[in-house]
Design a protein that fits this description.
Radius of gyration: 22 Å
Number of helices: 4
Strand content: under 5%
Shape: rod-shaped
Oligomer: single chain
Order of helices and strands: HHHH
Helix content: over 70%
Largest sheet: none
Number of strands: 0
């Protein structure tokens, strides 16, 4: 959903720039060049999270038991889930790299469209 909102706002400012005349029509080519890497990153990350999550989400026998054994199972399953989902909260340098690339591309297109 965040990627979709980003796509919409990005397209809105590109269209506004062309419509109001402070950028040429070539700027519209920036949309796919800039947004596709972000969409690819989000999609690939989601696939990887689901691959990691599969084994972590297996429900062992005794998970709901009101016992110390049940409590230990819940703790272990919780730790597996946190480890499987860690990548979505720690996106690291790949996201920063994609954002830097987008900023550079936008600046190049802005200067060439005038």
């Amino acid at each position: 959903m965040n990627a979709g909102i980003g796509d919409a706002t990005h397209l809105a400012w590109l269209l506004a720039a062309v419509y109001h005349g402070w950028a040429g029509g070539n700027l519209l080519h920036a949309y796919e060049v800039e947004r596709r890497p972000i969409g690819d990153l989000v999609s690939n990350s989601a696939v990887q999270i689901m691959r990691n999550r599969g084994p972590a989400m297996q429900v062992p026998e005794g998970l709901e038991d009101a016992s110390t054994k049940g409590e230990a199972i819940r703790k272990e399953v919780g730790e597996r889930i946190v480890a499987a989902d860690a990548s979505q909260f720690n996106s690291g340098s790949s996201t920063a790299s994609a954002c830097n690339s987008v900023t550079t591309t936008a600046a190049q297109l802005m200067s060439s469209s005038r």
